[in-house]
Amino acid sequence: MLDDERLAHLRAVVDLPDLTGTRYRLVHRLGAGGMATVYLVVDESLGREAALKVLTDPDPGGQMAARLVEEARLLAGLEHPNLAPVHDVGTLPDGRVFYVMKYVRGARFDAWIASVTDRPAILRLFVKVCDAVAFAHAHGVVHRDLKPQNIMVGAFGEALVMDWGVAKRLSAPEAPTLQLDAPAAPGIAPGRPAGAAPVGTRAGTVIGTPAWMAPEQARGDLDQVGPRTDVYALGAILYYLLSGRPPFPAGPAESVLRQVREESPADLRRLDASIPKRLAAIVRRAMAKDPGARYAAASDLSADVLRHLDGLAVAAYPESFLERGVRVLSRTRTLAALIAAYIAMRLILLWFTGR
Amino acid sequence: MADRFPTTHWSAVRGAQSAEPEERRRSLEAIAAAYWRPVYKHVRLSRRRSPEDAEDLTQAFFARAFEKEFFAGYDPAKGRFRTFLRTCVDRFVANEDKAAARLKRGGGAAALPCDFEAAEAEIAAAGARGAGRSPEDLFDDEWVRSLFGLAVEALRQECEAAGKGRHFDLFRRYDLEDAGAGGITYDDLAREFSLTTSLVTNHLAWARREFRRLLLETLRGVTGSDEEFRLEARLLLGSEPPRHAG
Question: What's the rounded mean pLDDT across residues A193-222?
Fold first, then answer.
């Protein structure tokens, strides 16, 4: 008889990757998403830790295996400090396809943000994320599932954009992807929680994670999906970083998708009046319903955030003359204070000496 | 019963809808092999029937399923076979309630080779652990247990047929009897079986690999489509809890 303990052990046994004959030794499971699981392993040839991503689900048609290999190759072609490098790809003795990438020590963006209150530090990290995405765009790759859960913050403050499982080469036709569990139209299983795993990817259905996806993704309009789709998700991430909440509250997937398509998120400054108008405007532009009204590139978004950090005018916010004066004064606060002190001193001297 | 899942891509669920009586019979047997335990325990615990009643109802359900072609109406596009079958059981039990006098169960069909005594002992051994669980969760848990049990038996048969009894013995000692408790080490097994430690790990790796393959093969036999197979495998292999789903 298989009691609960034996059953639990056997379930773990069949789930674990069979690393017999490979140069990797299993340490423990790091996490699972979609239909792949990531394990911490030790590469015994090189004596270093690594993360091994392996298909969890059976793959009768071989499509998911092909997709995992494609993900590995795609990532291997994107050498950037904010992207985890791929070391190896292959097939395990149990027939499952895997790839090995750098093991990133650190915290997920959503966990990291809970311990950081310094807004400029958060924005500087966000700029790194934008830079990595811009780099991918420059190489013709769109991520399509950007969200705080897919960004790791390393021990030395580096940001790494992870999980390129539903990424697409802009030059390639739509490939079968790792996520095939959404039904046909409208593409989302009823009642499925909206914040967790990404959803279906057949042509004409929805790709990405509802809470973070752009309206064109929520409509299943694959022709419209491009770099500006990632710009929207970056805007949604910035919204989250500033307010501590996603743009739309969690709920059944179809409800979140409807909000993404039809509604605007709650005004950031109503949630937190300390959020500068310029930053709120940057988020609004990045998250515009119409892709054409968004930043054309992730690099434009990061440039606007950097301008804000430097106290410069941002493209997303046409400021009034008075606002400009306040901003300039605020930026040159020390100089303004010295000038004011000099003028005050001259006035006092004039008053007492008549000179 | 594990040999009722003969080929890699054969589906008993599709076979149960076949026009060929022999194919339907073989498919029904395979479905019964995977499901009689969950059905029995569902009737016993969730429908609160006596062991005798639950035994009769389980036998009658599968016999009636063959006669009345219960599973012919299953449409993979509308949900999982597991959920469909549980609904059929509930309907069947409710109808039996309405016509308790008609308990000529089975209509003379041959009884399934089910070890109800063993199932009853499992219920007693599980004690109060199942208390508070929904009927759906209990059914699904038993379904998972049943498939793993079939895969263990299939592995035993395969090892026996291939002259790899020692591989199965190692698997039994390490993964069934010790079940990861840490009471037995590879070195212990090496001494016990007069093998080198590396041979122990190689044999165990082979047995586990085969076990995984046979488990998935068994699962494939009781699912109706590639999509359902993939989704059920995700539950079975532990990446998601085995919750009921439409």
Answer: 69
Coil/strand/helix, residue A67 = helix
Tokens found for residue B221: 């036999």
Q: What is the model's pLDDT at position B76?
A: 80
Q: In sequence order, what DSSP letters do the residues of B80-101 get, joined into one string?
A: -HHHHHHHHHHHHHHHHHHTGG
**What pTM, to 2 d.p., does this model score?**
0.71
**CB A279 within 8 Å of CB A122:** no
Average confidence (pLDDT) over B207-223: 91
Look at the domain A106-309 and name its fold: Transferase(Phosphotransferase); domain 1 (1.10.510)
**How close is the nearest chain B Cα to the Cα of A2, in Å?**
7
Q: How far apart are CA A307 and CA A301, in angstroms?
A: 10
A138, amino acid identity: A
Report ipTM for this prediction. 0.79
pLDDT at residue B230 in the model: 81
Active site residue A145: yes
Provide residues of B within 8 Å CB-CB of chain A. 9, 118, 121-122, 125-126, 129, 144-145, 148-149, 152, 175-176, 179-181, 201-202, 205, 208-209, 211-213, 215-216, 220, 226-227, 229-231, 233-234, 236-239
Q: How would you classify the pairing of strands A36-43 and A151-154?
A: unpaired
- Phi and psi at A41, nearest 5°, equal -130, 165
Distances, alpha carbon A208 to alpha carbons A144, A165, A211, A227, in Å: 6, 10, 9, 14
Residue range A236-264: mean pLDDT, rounded: 92
Q: How far apart are CA B34 and CA B145, in angstroms?
A: 9
Tell me the helices (H) and strands (E) count for chain A, helix number first: 12, 10
Residue-wise pLDDT tens digits, B82-140: 888 999 999 888 887 666 544 544 444 556 667 788 788 777 777 666 666 788 888 88
Q: What is the dihedral of CA A273, A277, A283, A287, to 10 degrees?
A: 100
Superfamily of domain A15-102: Phosphorylase Kinase; domain 1 (3.30.200.20)
